[in-house]
Amino acid sequence: MSMTNSPEKIVNEGEPQGNPELLPGTFNDDAVTRGLLAEAIKKSGESRDKIAERMSWLLATKVTPDMLNNFTAEGKVAHRFPFAWSRAFCQSTGDWRLLQYIAEQAGFLLLNKEDAEVVTLGEQVIERERASTEVTRIARNIIERRASR
Questions:
Q1: How many Cβ atoms sit within 10 Å of the Cβ of residue 52?
Q2: Whole-angstrom Cα distance, residue 74 to residue 58?
Q3: What separation in angstroms does the CA of 45 have from each of 4, 93, 111?
Q4: Cα–Cα distance between 23 and 20 in angstroms, integer?
Q5: What pLDDT band is residue 8 in, cutting at 50, 70 and 90?
Q6: What is the value of pTM for the model shown?
Q7: What is the pLDDT of residue 15?
Q8: Rounded to whole angstroms, how far apart are CA atoms 119 and 92?
Q9: What is the pLDDT of residues 35-64, one digit of tens each?
Q10: Which residues make Cβ contacts (< 8 Å) with residue 79, sequence separation at least 6?
Q11: CA gap 34, 50 in Å, rounded
Q12: CB count, 10 Å around CB of 88?
């Protein structure tokens, strides 16, 4: 996909030119990511040592409390949280807002499996109602045709 650069915006071909979301820097989620990581750690009630230990086990890669400190510090811009570690972080803190934020910013809704089943059930109920309405319509047509003979 080719990109067109202009001083006021970056536009993907096929995207509406007036889309205000496609301005330089609007997809840089660094500050939000740092804030979400810090809040998740605090909210978890666990020490950074414990979270780092859990993440290390889940990732089979060494994660240290100092790394978590660097990922959450606003002044440590050179230290970026690796997206590949997101699930391990969320699992270790019990806070899935990081993934939820990313999904929502991309225009998606993040659902757990139980909520997805509720959506599927709703779709099935709607489909059943449509089928029932169609059956009723066809039956009326048949009855009307037979009555007019």
A1: 21
A2: 26
A3: 46, 8, 24
A4: 6
A5: very low
A6: 0.67
A7: 52
A8: 28
A9: 999 999 999 999 999 999 999 999 999 999
A10: 67, 70, 71, 73
A11: 19
A12: 20
